[in-house]
Amino acid sequence: MPPKLKYSQDGPEAKEIAQYLPYFPFKGIPRFYDIGGFLYEPAVFQKIVDIFAERYSELQIDVIAGLDARGFVLGPPIALALKKPFVMMRKAGKMPNTITSEDYKTEYGSRSGLTVQKDKIMEGHRVLIIDDLVATGGTLSSAISLVKMLKGTVVECACVVELKMFIDPPAASGLPSRTKLFKDLGHSDVPVWGLISEDVLTNEAKLPDGYVDDGEEH
């Protein structure tokens, strides 16, 4: 059964929420989308939780997994709304009794594999993966690998923001392709959904005097 489709990418609700997602020049990236904007607005944050909860309410989901670190903010309220367990997928060395996926690459550079506790995802579990944003798909691919290592199934990867420019860009663009990455890793069977795309993320942050891009690799 496909997810409920009352809410579509870049639909009316998404366009309204997009106004609370300003972009900054940060980490050398001209458009870094800051979820702190909607987290500061309880009604907007609640609307996002409601949208995701409704989308997945009729699917058979056993576990909701959130990615380090912003998935830890978004995942728990969605899990509570759906009355499902929440598990953390963290950087290595942060939790006991874990397995680790292979190293991966993101738009920021190379990363060590993610980890999850071995007893939190069982064989046959249907898992919903939550993160704030998907770009190249590197982090999501690491999370998908963890689920498959434990013989679970990823129902969908759900993000507030999806940068469509990375889905399948022309080779001449020089941009990494999420479609190719997923194919190479055997993850083409896993759907990805984002509520908002860059097409409607037009709210440029008003930078204060003296603003400095002090972002660090994380």
What's the short version?
The protein has 218 residues and is of the alpha/beta class. Helix content is 27%, strand content 27%.
Features of this protein?
single chain, 218 residues, alpha/beta, seven-stranded mixed sheet, two-stranded antiparallel sheet, 11 strands, globular
Mind explaining what this structure looks like?
The chain contains six helices and eleven strands. The model has no long low-confidence stretch (mean pLDDT about 95). It is globular and about 50 Å long. The chain has helices at about 10-20, 35-40, 40-55, 70-80, 140-150, 180-185; strands at about 25, 30-35, 65, 85-90, 100, 105, 110, 115, 125-135, 155-160, 190-195. Helix 3 crosses helix 4. Strands 5-8-4-3-9-10-11 form a seven-stranded mixed β-sheet, sandwiched between helices. A two-stranded antiparallel ribbon has the order 1-2. Strands 6-7 form a two-stranded antiparallel ribbon. The N and C termini lie far apart (about 35 Å). It has about 220 residues and is of the alpha/beta class.
Helix content: 25-40%
Main sheet attributes: strand count, strand direction, barrel closure: 7 strands, mixed
> Mind telling me the C-alpha Rg?
17 Å
**SSE arrangement, N to C:** HEEHHEHEEEEEEHEHE
Strand order of the largest sheet: 5-8-4-3-9-10-11
Set down the secondary structure blueprint.
Elements: H1 12-18, E1 23-26, E2 29-33, H2 36-39, H3 42-56, E3 63-67, H4 71-82, E4 86-91, E5 98-100, E6 104-106, E7 109-111, E8 114-117, E9 126-134, H5 138-149, E10 153-162, H6 178-185, E11 192-197
Parallel strand pairs: 3-4, 3-9, 9-10, 10-11
Antiparallel strand pairs: 1-2, 4-8, 5-8, 6-7
